[in-house]
Design goal:
mainly beta, seven-stranded antiparallel beta sheet, 13% helix, elongated
């Protein structure tokens, strides 16, 4: 029976450790994206968001006593990422679907949604590979 020399054991263990460490990619675990909703007086709502390359989405309800809503969004992006705001009226009809792309101008949008049915509206905020921060707001339209 042959005896395995200690240097071969060391080289085998060392090679295995190099492979394990070299093949482990923890970069994705450090990516994040976060959306914070800030409710204002009746008919007003907004929020802030931030990320370092992560993706997330959040849907929340918004009480709108009128048939339109004023909207505003602004991003500050250091590299890339997409911010998207989708607003549905009380009947589920999409009255707004706008996006900002971090690699292109403009870096903000505002306006008035299409007319819809008043009541409980649904707002979905989506961040995709978002690297930066921003804010958005909605208020009852005119």
């Amino acid at each position: 029976m042959k005896t395995v020399k200690p240097k071969y054991i060391f080289l085998t263990v060392f090679s295995a450790l190099i492979l394990l460490v070299g093949c482990n990619n923890d970069d994705d675990q450090h990516l994040f994206a976060n959306i914070t909703i800030n409710e204002g007086p009746n008919g007003d709502i907004g929020g802030d968001f931030t990320g370092n390359g992560g993706s997330t989405s959040q849907t929340f309800e918004y009480q709108n006593g009128l048939t339109t809503a004023d909207y505003n969004a602004d991003i500050t992006v250091s590299a890339n990422g997409i911010f998207q705001m989708i607003v549905q009226d009380a009947d589920g009809t999409i009255v707004l679907d706008r996006s900002l792309n971090g690699t292109m101008e403009p870096d903000s949008f505002s306006g008035v949604t299409s007319a819809g049915t008043s009541g409980t509206w649904s707002v979905t905020i989506i961040l995709i590979d978002f690297n930066g921060d921003g804010s958005f707001s909605l208020s009852e339209g005119d």
